[in-house]
Amino acid sequence: MDIQQNVLLAPYTTVKIGGPADFFIHTKNSEELIAAIKYGQDNNLPITILGNGSNVLISDSGIRGLVIKNDSEEIELLPDNKVKVSSGTQLSSLINFTLDHNLLGLEEFAYIPSTVGGAIIGDIHGVNKNHFSKFVDSVEKYNDFIISTVLKLIPGNSTSAKAEVSEIIQKKSQVQLMNSLGSVFKNPEGHDPAGMIIDQQLNLRGYSIGDAQINPKHGNFIINNGHATAKDYLALISLIQSKTQEILGFQFELEIKLLGKF
After folding, report:
1. DSSP 8-state symbol, 30
2. Architecture of domain 194-259
3. N or C: which end of the chain has fewer CB within 10 A?
């Protein structure tokens, strides 16, 4: 294994923010992932696994211990409309693969910049409000870390499903910029969607702190306009939360995860 030290993590996130990892291993398949986990545990290192880094804000001081960048991308067709897929597989690759083999169900998760492992951990929901867990048949773990999963899908003709994917990508790409972490907050129950509240009730559309900016196209996305820090990003989060509490009397719950010391 190529074990590196003091590797900056910003390039491994969609928002391009984050300090260094003490130790860093980039794995390309499931065997390497298991070996890296074993190395970390044998050396008593805290282990953090990064997929796309699309839903995590990493501290400017980085992450202590071992960070494993998981790019294990393996997909295998199984009987009974099932596929086995490794946890580092890009969700977009999986969707394309399954549709090419006339297996349906995952198209509503198009344009979500996640790996399969991240989709399982976050139990992401698609545009039709189904959760990823609906399709999970089983999960293979090594010492509590997800290595692969078996998905149960729906046989059918993929022509219309591919058209649906294209339509989802076209619509989402107009408002969801990829220099962000996706939705910052969960939509609060019994209220308008978070983005609508931030835009229309808090009047924070386009507000910036440093190079971190509330996306002018969608209030629930915070983008990096070049040199934003985690401190900037978190300051915007705190501003939104305090104004929500002050004006509306409730608190947004974070959808993104904070990694490192804040």
Report:
1. H
2. Alpha-Beta Complex (3.90)
3. N
